[in-house]
Design brief:
The chain is an all-beta fold. It has two domains: 129 residues, Immunoglobulin-like (Sandwich), CATH 2.60.40; 311 residues, Methylamine Dehydrogenase, Chain H (7 Propeller), CATH 2.130.10. Helix content is 2%, strand content 51%. Strands 32, 35, 37, 38 and 39 form a five-stranded antiparallel sheet that branches. The protein has a four-stranded antiparallel sheet with strand order 1-28-27-26, with no helix packed on it. A four-stranded antiparallel sheet has the order 2-3-4-5, with no helix packed on it. The radius of gyration is 22 Å and the shape is globular.
Protein backbone atom coordinates (compact mmCIF):
# COMPACT_ATOMS: atom_id res chain seq x y z
CA UNK A 1 0.00 0.00 0.00
CA UNK A 2 1.35 3.44 -0.94
CA UNK A 3 2.11 5.91 1.84
CA UNK A 4 -0.44 8.69 2.37
CA UNK A 5 0.36 12.40 2.11
CA UNK A 6 0.08 12.71 5.91
CA UNK A 7 2.54 9.84 6.30
CA UNK A 8 5.07 11.60 4.06
CA UNK A 9 4.58 14.87 5.88
CA UNK A 10 5.22 13.24 9.23
CA UNK A 11 8.30 11.31 8.02
CA UNK A 12 9.96 14.29 6.37
CA UNK A 13 9.28 16.68 9.26
CA UNK A 14 10.13 14.40 12.18
CA UNK A 15 12.76 15.82 14.57
CA UNK A 16 13.24 18.91 12.42
CA UNK A 17 12.97 22.56 13.48
CA UNK A 18 9.87 24.33 12.28
CA UNK A 19 10.59 26.47 9.23
CA UNK A 20 8.37 28.37 6.86
CA UNK A 21 7.99 26.71 3.49
CA UNK A 22 7.68 30.20 2.07
CA UNK A 23 11.20 31.04 3.28
CA UNK A 24 12.65 28.93 0.52
CA UNK A 25 15.58 30.05 -1.57
CA UNK A 26 15.47 27.65 -4.45
CA UNK A 27 17.50 27.21 -7.63
CA UNK A 28 17.75 24.87 -10.55
CA UNK A 29 20.90 22.85 -10.15
CA UNK A 30 21.45 19.46 -11.65
CA UNK A 31 22.35 16.76 -9.15
CA UNK A 32 25.12 14.33 -10.00
CA UNK A 33 22.97 11.76 -11.72
CA UNK A 34 23.32 9.57 -14.77
CA UNK A 35 26.12 10.12 -17.25
CA UNK A 36 25.35 11.49 -20.70
CA UNK A 37 25.53 7.99 -22.14
CA UNK A 38 22.75 6.83 -19.79
CA UNK A 39 20.56 9.92 -20.05
CA UNK A 40 17.75 10.13 -22.60
CA UNK A 41 15.78 13.15 -23.78
CA UNK A 42 12.28 13.61 -25.10
CA UNK A 43 11.67 16.21 -27.80
CA UNK A 44 9.11 18.98 -27.23
CA UNK A 45 8.70 21.27 -30.28
CA UNK A 46 7.63 24.87 -29.71
CA UNK A 47 4.33 25.43 -31.54
CA UNK A 48 3.77 28.00 -34.27
CA UNK A 49 1.15 30.62 -33.35
CA UNK A 50 -1.78 31.02 -35.74
CA UNK A 51 -0.64 32.81 -38.87
CA UNK A 52 3.07 32.35 -38.17
CA UNK A 53 5.38 30.87 -40.79
CA UNK A 54 8.51 30.50 -38.67
CA UNK A 55 9.82 30.59 -35.11
CA UNK A 56 13.36 30.86 -33.75
CA UNK A 57 13.96 30.32 -30.04
CA UNK A 58 17.08 32.07 -28.75
CA UNK A 59 16.95 32.39 -24.95
CA UNK A 60 16.06 29.80 -22.26
CA UNK A 61 15.51 30.29 -18.53
CA UNK A 62 15.44 27.92 -15.56
CA UNK A 63 11.74 27.05 -15.78
CA UNK A 64 11.75 26.13 -19.50
CA UNK A 65 10.50 29.52 -20.69
CA UNK A 66 11.86 30.62 -24.07
CA UNK A 67 12.12 33.85 -26.02
CA UNK A 68 13.08 34.63 -29.61
CA UNK A 69 11.35 35.78 -32.80
CA UNK A 70 8.22 34.68 -34.69
CA UNK A 71 7.83 35.39 -38.42
CA UNK A 72 4.34 36.72 -39.21
CA UNK A 73 3.25 38.67 -42.29
CA UNK A 74 6.87 39.18 -43.30
CA UNK A 75 7.65 40.76 -39.93
CA UNK A 76 9.49 39.28 -36.95
CA UNK A 77 7.81 39.67 -33.57
CA UNK A 78 9.25 38.84 -30.12
CA UNK A 79 7.61 36.02 -28.17
CA UNK A 80 7.41 34.41 -24.74
CA UNK A 81 6.93 30.62 -24.53
CA UNK A 82 5.74 28.78 -21.40
CA UNK A 83 3.90 25.49 -20.81
CA UNK A 84 3.25 24.72 -24.46
CA UNK A 85 1.97 28.18 -25.45
CA UNK A 86 3.65 30.95 -27.44
CA UNK A 87 2.57 34.52 -26.63
CA UNK A 88 3.58 37.26 -29.09
CA UNK A 89 4.66 40.46 -27.33
CA UNK A 90 2.65 42.86 -29.44
CA UNK A 91 3.39 45.74 -27.05
CA UNK A 92 6.97 45.90 -28.36
CA UNK A 93 7.06 47.85 -31.62
CA UNK A 94 9.10 47.36 -34.74
CA UNK A 95 9.16 45.47 -38.02
CA UNK A 96 12.01 43.17 -37.05
CA UNK A 97 11.98 42.58 -33.30
CA UNK A 98 13.29 39.60 -31.37
CA UNK A 99 13.90 38.56 -27.79
CA UNK A 100 17.46 37.40 -27.13
CA UNK A 101 17.64 36.58 -23.41
CA UNK A 102 15.13 35.71 -20.68
CA UNK A 103 15.70 35.47 -16.93
CA UNK A 104 13.81 33.47 -14.30
CA UNK A 105 11.36 36.32 -13.74
CA UNK A 106 10.47 36.05 -17.45
CA UNK A 107 11.95 39.48 -18.13
CA UNK A 108 13.13 39.62 -21.74
CA UNK A 109 15.71 41.72 -23.53
CA UNK A 110 16.49 42.05 -27.21
CA UNK A 111 16.31 44.67 -29.95
CA UNK A 112 13.94 46.01 -32.59
CA UNK A 113 13.96 47.77 -35.94
CA UNK A 114 11.23 50.40 -36.27
CA UNK A 115 9.23 51.50 -39.30
CA UNK A 116 11.18 54.05 -41.32
CA UNK A 117 14.26 53.76 -39.10
CA UNK A 118 17.31 51.80 -40.19
CA UNK A 119 19.02 51.44 -36.78
CA UNK A 120 18.00 49.11 -33.95
CA UNK A 121 16.92 49.91 -30.42
CA UNK A 122 17.43 47.68 -27.36
CA UNK A 123 14.51 46.91 -25.05
CA UNK A 124 13.76 45.31 -21.68
CA UNK A 125 10.34 43.73 -21.20
CA UNK A 126 9.43 43.29 -17.49
CA UNK A 127 6.42 41.05 -18.11
CA UNK A 128 3.96 43.94 -18.25
CA UNK A 129 5.74 46.99 -19.64
CA UNK A 130 8.37 47.56 -22.28
CA UNK A 131 11.34 49.82 -21.48
CA UNK A 132 13.49 51.21 -24.28
CA UNK A 133 17.15 51.14 -23.29
CA UNK A 134 18.21 54.47 -24.76
CA UNK A 135 21.97 54.93 -24.59
CA UNK A 136 23.36 58.36 -23.61
CA UNK A 137 24.15 59.15 -27.24
CA UNK A 138 20.74 58.00 -28.55
CA UNK A 139 22.44 55.76 -31.09
CA UNK A 140 22.15 52.21 -32.46
CA UNK A 141 21.82 49.76 -29.55
CA UNK A 142 21.73 45.94 -29.42
CA UNK A 143 20.91 44.02 -26.20
CA UNK A 144 22.16 40.44 -25.96
CA UNK A 145 22.37 39.24 -22.34
CA UNK A 146 20.40 39.55 -19.09
CA UNK A 147 20.82 38.31 -15.51
CA UNK A 148 18.45 37.91 -12.54
CA UNK A 149 19.36 41.37 -11.23
CA UNK A 150 18.00 42.86 -14.45
CA UNK A 151 21.40 43.92 -15.76
CA UNK A 152 21.48 44.03 -19.57
CA UNK A 153 24.58 43.77 -21.75
CA UNK A 154 25.16 44.26 -25.47
CA UNK A 155 26.81 46.74 -27.83
CA UNK A 156 26.08 50.13 -29.41
CA UNK A 157 27.56 52.68 -31.79
CA UNK A 158 28.63 56.00 -30.23
CA UNK A 159 28.39 59.09 -32.49
CA UNK A 160 31.44 59.58 -34.68
CA UNK A 161 32.65 56.24 -33.37
CA UNK A 162 34.03 53.23 -35.14
CA UNK A 163 32.38 50.38 -37.02
CA UNK A 164 33.38 47.93 -34.28
CA UNK A 165 31.00 49.44 -31.74
CA UNK A 166 31.31 49.56 -27.94
CA UNK A 167 30.21 47.02 -25.36
CA UNK A 168 27.87 48.20 -22.59
CA UNK A 169 26.10 47.16 -19.40
CA UNK A 170 22.87 48.76 -18.14
CA UNK A 171 21.97 48.62 -14.44
CA UNK A 172 18.63 50.17 -13.43
CA UNK A 173 18.68 52.34 -16.54
CA UNK A 174 22.27 53.53 -16.07
CA UNK A 175 24.62 52.83 -18.99
CA UNK A 176 28.30 51.94 -18.52
CA UNK A 177 30.49 51.96 -21.62
CA UNK A 178 32.90 49.00 -21.52
CA UNK A 179 35.01 50.04 -24.50
CA UNK A 180 35.50 48.47 -27.92
CA UNK A 181 33.60 45.30 -28.82
CA UNK A 182 30.42 43.55 -27.74
CA UNK A 183 29.13 42.01 -24.51
CA UNK A 184 27.17 38.80 -24.99
CA UNK A 185 26.27 37.60 -21.47
CA UNK A 186 26.46 38.50 -17.76
CA UNK A 187 26.56 36.26 -14.67
CA UNK A 188 24.63 36.79 -11.44
CA UNK A 189 27.69 38.40 -9.81
CA UNK A 190 28.16 40.80 -12.72
CA UNK A 191 30.99 39.16 -14.70
CA UNK A 192 30.55 40.05 -18.37
CA UNK A 193 31.87 38.14 -21.39
CA UNK A 194 32.13 38.92 -25.10
CA UNK A 195 34.86 40.15 -27.41
CA UNK A 196 36.80 43.40 -27.82
CA UNK A 197 36.77 43.32 -31.62
CA UNK A 198 33.62 42.25 -33.46
CA UNK A 199 35.49 41.74 -36.74
CA UNK A 200 38.74 40.08 -35.71
CA UNK A 201 37.85 38.44 -32.41
CA UNK A 202 39.71 38.75 -29.07
CA UNK A 203 37.78 36.99 -26.31
CA UNK A 204 37.19 39.42 -23.45
CA UNK A 205 35.92 39.09 -19.88
CA UNK A 206 35.03 42.18 -17.81
CA UNK A 207 35.07 41.65 -14.04
CA UNK A 208 33.38 44.11 -11.67
CA UNK A 209 35.23 46.04 -8.96
CA UNK A 210 34.82 49.14 -6.84
CA UNK A 211 35.74 51.41 -9.75
CA UNK A 212 33.79 49.58 -12.45
CA UNK A 213 34.55 46.72 -14.81
CA UNK A 214 38.10 45.70 -15.69
CA UNK A 215 38.69 43.85 -19.00
CA UNK A 216 40.94 40.84 -19.50
CA UNK A 217 41.83 39.88 -23.08
CA UNK A 218 42.20 36.17 -23.78
CA UNK A 219 43.42 33.94 -26.58
CA UNK A 220 40.16 33.25 -28.37
CA UNK A 221 37.68 34.59 -30.88
CA UNK A 222 34.47 35.11 -28.87
CA UNK A 223 32.78 34.33 -25.56
CA UNK A 224 29.13 33.42 -26.08
CA UNK A 225 27.81 32.68 -22.57
CA UNK A 226 28.80 32.53 -18.89
CA UNK A 227 27.24 30.35 -16.20
CA UNK A 228 25.15 31.86 -13.40
CA UNK A 229 27.87 31.59 -10.76
CA UNK A 230 30.47 33.27 -12.98
CA UNK A 231 32.92 30.37 -12.73
CA UNK A 232 32.92 29.19 -16.35
CA UNK A 233 32.23 30.69 -19.76
CA UNK A 234 32.25 29.30 -23.28
CA UNK A 235 32.62 30.31 -26.91
CA UNK A 236 35.07 29.96 -29.77
CA UNK A 237 38.83 29.65 -29.44
CA UNK A 238 41.44 30.89 -31.89
CA UNK A 239 40.57 30.36 -35.55
CA UNK A 240 42.19 27.30 -37.11
CA UNK A 241 42.12 27.10 -40.92
CA UNK A 242 39.39 29.79 -40.82
CA UNK A 243 37.09 27.57 -38.72
CA UNK A 244 35.73 28.06 -35.19
CA UNK A 245 36.94 25.82 -32.38
CA UNK A 246 34.75 25.06 -29.34
CA UNK A 247 36.20 26.04 -25.94
CA UNK A 248 35.35 26.48 -22.27
CA UNK A 249 37.17 28.88 -19.89
CA UNK A 250 37.47 28.09 -16.16
CA UNK A 251 38.82 30.23 -13.31
CA UNK A 252 41.95 28.64 -11.77
CA UNK A 253 44.04 30.45 -9.15
CA UNK A 254 42.70 33.79 -10.31
CA UNK A 255 43.42 33.10 -13.97
CA UNK A 256 41.07 32.14 -16.80
CA UNK A 257 42.25 28.85 -18.32
CA UNK A 258 41.02 27.65 -21.72
CA UNK A 259 40.09 24.01 -22.43
CA UNK A 260 39.48 22.97 -26.04
CA UNK A 261 36.41 20.81 -26.59
CA UNK A 262 36.31 17.86 -29.00
CA UNK A 263 38.92 16.28 -31.21
CA UNK A 264 37.50 17.36 -34.55
CA UNK A 265 39.72 18.16 -37.53
CA UNK A 266 39.74 21.99 -37.74
CA UNK A 267 40.74 21.89 -41.40
CA UNK A 268 37.36 20.46 -42.43
CA UNK A 269 35.02 21.18 -39.52
CA UNK A 270 33.81 24.03 -37.32
CA UNK A 271 32.40 23.90 -33.78
CA UNK A 272 31.35 26.49 -31.23
CA UNK A 273 30.17 26.33 -27.61
CA UNK A 274 26.89 28.17 -27.09
CA UNK A 275 26.05 27.82 -23.37
CA UNK A 276 27.22 26.39 -20.03
CA UNK A 277 25.50 25.80 -16.68
CA UNK A 278 26.83 25.68 -13.12
CA UNK A 279 27.54 21.95 -13.46
CA UNK A 280 29.95 22.45 -16.31
CA UNK A 281 27.62 21.01 -18.93
CA UNK A 282 28.40 22.72 -22.23
CA UNK A 283 26.26 22.61 -25.37
CA UNK A 284 27.05 23.73 -28.89
CA UNK A 285 26.95 22.94 -32.57
CA UNK A 286 29.23 21.30 -35.13
CA UNK A 287 29.47 21.60 -38.91
CA UNK A 288 31.61 19.75 -41.41
CA UNK A 289 32.07 19.40 -45.15
CA UNK A 290 31.81 15.65 -44.69
CA UNK A 291 29.03 15.11 -42.11
CA UNK A 292 25.59 16.45 -41.17
CA UNK A 293 25.25 19.28 -38.69
CA UNK A 294 25.22 18.09 -35.09
CA UNK A 295 24.20 19.52 -31.72
CA UNK A 296 26.32 18.19 -28.86
CA UNK A 297 26.78 18.17 -25.09
CA UNK A 298 30.15 18.19 -23.31
CA UNK A 299 30.52 16.95 -19.73
CA UNK A 300 33.09 15.01 -17.73
CA UNK A 301 35.59 15.57 -20.52
CA UNK A 302 33.49 13.88 -23.19
CA UNK A 303 31.47 15.11 -26.18
CA UNK A 304 28.25 13.28 -27.07
CA UNK A 305 25.97 13.91 -30.07
CA UNK A 306 22.54 14.85 -28.75
CA UNK A 307 20.86 12.86 -31.51
CA UNK A 308 22.34 9.74 -29.90
CA UNK A 309 20.72 10.62 -26.56
CA UNK A 310 17.12 10.85 -27.74
CA UNK A 311 14.58 8.47 -26.20
CA UNK A 312 13.25 5.64 -28.33
CA UNK A 313 9.98 7.42 -29.14
CA UNK A 314 11.96 10.33 -30.65
CA UNK A 315 14.59 8.40 -32.59
CA UNK A 316 13.40 9.93 -35.90
CA UNK A 317 14.63 13.36 -34.78
CA UNK A 318 18.07 14.78 -35.51
CA UNK A 319 19.50 17.61 -33.38
CA UNK A 320 21.21 20.17 -35.60
CA UNK A 321 22.24 22.75 -33.01
CA UNK A 322 22.20 23.10 -29.21
CA UNK A 323 21.69 26.76 -28.25
CA UNK A 324 21.12 26.82 -24.50
CA UNK A 325 21.08 24.67 -21.35
CA UNK A 326 19.56 25.50 -17.97
CA UNK A 327 20.47 24.29 -14.48
CA UNK A 328 18.05 21.35 -14.73
CA UNK A 329 19.80 20.09 -17.86
CA UNK A 330 17.00 21.05 -20.27
CA UNK A 331 18.40 22.03 -23.66
CA UNK A 332 17.12 24.56 -26.21
CA UNK A 333 17.91 23.26 -29.69
CA UNK A 334 17.17 23.28 -33.40
CA UNK A 335 16.12 19.87 -34.67
CA UNK A 336 14.35 18.16 -37.58
CA UNK A 337 12.27 15.04 -37.99
CA UNK A 338 12.65 15.12 -41.78
CA UNK A 339 14.69 12.07 -42.91
CA UNK A 340 16.44 14.27 -45.49
CA UNK A 341 17.22 16.84 -42.76
CA UNK A 342 15.42 19.64 -44.59
CA UNK A 343 14.25 22.52 -42.44
CA UNK A 344 14.38 22.68 -38.68
CA UNK A 345 12.31 23.81 -35.73
CA UNK A 346 13.00 25.04 -32.23
CA UNK A 347 12.60 22.31 -29.60
CA UNK A 348 13.24 21.65 -25.94
CA UNK A 349 15.19 18.50 -25.09
CA UNK A 350 13.86 17.44 -21.68
CA UNK A 351 15.32 14.54 -19.67
CA UNK A 352 12.78 11.72 -19.75
CA UNK A 353 13.25 11.04 -16.02
CA UNK A 354 11.56 13.11 -13.31
CA UNK A 355 13.15 16.59 -13.42
CA UNK A 356 12.68 19.61 -11.17
CA UNK A 357 12.89 23.03 -12.81
CA UNK A 358 13.82 26.42 -11.44
CA UNK A 359 10.99 28.20 -9.61
CA UNK A 360 8.81 30.39 -11.79
CA UNK A 361 7.66 33.77 -10.55
CA UNK A 362 8.85 37.14 -9.32
CA UNK A 363 11.06 35.80 -6.54
CA UNK A 364 10.99 36.85 -2.88
CA UNK A 365 7.81 38.59 -1.76
CA UNK A 366 5.59 36.89 -4.35
CA UNK A 367 3.86 33.66 -5.26
CA UNK A 368 6.11 31.27 -7.18
CA UNK A 369 5.55 27.96 -8.92
CA UNK A 370 7.59 24.83 -8.25
CA UNK A 371 7.55 22.66 -11.37
CA UNK A 372 8.42 19.03 -12.03
CA UNK A 373 8.44 17.70 -15.61
CA UNK A 374 8.66 14.21 -17.12
CA UNK A 375 6.33 13.02 -14.37
CA UNK A 376 3.97 10.07 -14.86
CA UNK A 377 0.55 11.59 -15.79
CA UNK A 378 -1.89 11.23 -12.92
CA UNK A 379 0.80 10.61 -10.32
CA UNK A 380 1.03 12.70 -7.18
CA UNK A 381 4.40 14.46 -7.07
CA UNK A 382 5.75 15.63 -3.72
CA UNK A 383 8.09 18.62 -3.37
CA UNK A 384 10.60 18.73 -0.50
CA UNK A 385 13.06 21.38 0.63
CA UNK A 386 16.15 21.56 2.81
CA UNK A 387 19.15 23.78 3.44
CA UNK A 388 21.95 21.25 2.98
CA UNK A 389 22.51 18.32 0.67
CA UNK A 390 22.71 14.85 2.13
CA UNK A 391 20.83 11.56 2.04
CA UNK A 392 17.35 10.72 3.28
CA UNK A 393 15.49 7.50 2.55
CA UNK A 394 12.21 7.80 0.66
CA UNK A 395 9.48 6.14 2.77
CA UNK A 396 8.16 2.99 1.14
CA UNK A 397 10.94 2.86 -1.46
CA UNK A 398 13.84 0.67 -0.26
CA UNK A 399 17.18 1.82 -1.64
CA UNK A 400 15.81 5.12 -2.98
CA UNK A 401 17.16 8.27 -1.32
CA UNK A 402 16.61 11.99 -1.58
CA UNK A 403 19.68 14.16 -2.03
CA UNK A 404 18.67 16.60 0.74
CA UNK A 405 19.48 16.36 4.43
CA UNK A 406 16.57 16.92 6.86
CA UNK A 407 14.01 17.52 4.06
CA UNK A 408 10.68 19.16 4.76
CA UNK A 409 7.58 18.53 2.66
CA UNK A 410 6.27 21.69 1.01
CA UNK A 411 3.25 20.20 -0.73
CA UNK A 412 2.22 18.05 -3.68
CA UNK A 413 0.55 18.27 -7.08
CA UNK A 414 -0.90 15.86 -9.63
CA UNK A 415 1.00 15.52 -12.91
CA UNK A 416 -1.09 16.51 -15.93
CA UNK A 417 -1.30 14.88 -19.37
CA UNK A 418 1.77 16.86 -20.46
CA UNK A 419 3.82 15.19 -17.70
CA UNK A 420 4.05 18.35 -15.58
CA UNK A 421 3.23 18.89 -11.91
CA UNK A 422 3.03 22.46 -10.60
CA UNK A 423 2.84 23.63 -6.98
CA UNK A 424 2.25 27.27 -6.03
CA UNK A 425 4.02 28.58 -2.91
CA UNK A 426 4.19 32.01 -1.30
CA UNK A 427 7.73 33.31 -0.80
CA UNK A 428 8.07 36.25 1.64
CA UNK A 429 10.47 39.10 1.17
CA UNK A 430 12.52 37.75 4.09
CA UNK A 431 13.63 34.87 1.84
CA UNK A 432 15.62 37.25 -0.37
CA UNK A 433 19.25 36.15 -0.47
CA UNK A 434 18.72 32.74 1.19
CA UNK A 435 19.75 29.55 -0.54
CA UNK A 436 18.08 26.15 -0.21
CA UNK A 437 17.67 22.88 -2.08
CA UNK A 438 14.51 21.47 -3.63
CA UNK A 439 13.67 18.03 -4.96
CA UNK A 440 10.60 16.23 -6.31
CA UNK A 441 9.64 12.65 -5.55
CA UNK A 442 7.10 10.25 -7.05
CA UNK A 443 6.62 7.63 -4.30
CA UNK A 444 4.18 5.56 -6.37
CA UNK A 445 6.99 4.83 -8.83
CA UNK A 446 9.87 5.25 -6.32
CA UNK A 447 11.47 7.97 -8.46
CA UNK A 448 13.29 11.09 -7.31
CA UNK A 449 14.32 14.10 -9.37
CA UNK A 450 17.56 16.03 -9.59
CA UNK A 451 18.31 18.41 -6.71
CA UNK A 452 17.76 22.14 -7.25
CA UNK A 453 19.68 25.00 -5.69
CA UNK A 454 18.44 28.58 -5.89
CA UNK A 455 18.84 32.00 -4.32
CA UNK A 456 15.80 34.26 -4.59
CA UNK A 457 16.34 37.83 -5.78
Amino acid sequence: MNATPDHYRARFQRNQPLMLVSALALSAALAADASAGDRRYRVVPLPLPNGATGLDGVGLNGSNEVTGGVLMNQQVRPFHYADGEVTILTEIEGIYTSGHAINDKAHITGWMYEWGVIWPQAFLWDGQTNHWLIDPHDSYTYAQGLNERGQVVGFYYPPNGHANGNAFVVTDGRYVDLGYGQATDISENGIIVGQSNRYFGATTVWEPGQSGWTPTYLDGLLATAINDSGTMFVGAGPLVSYFDTAVVWTKDNGQWVRTDIGNWDPSVSSAISNDVNDHGQVVGNYESFQEPKQGWIFENGQVTWLSDLLAQDYSQWHVLRAKGINESGVILADATDDPNMYGSQTVLLIPETLTILGPRGQGAGATNELIAVSAEPGSRIYFVVGFTTGSQAVPGCPGVNLGIAAPRLTGSAIADADQQATLRVNVPGAARGRTAYLQAVDPAHCEVSNVLRYTFR
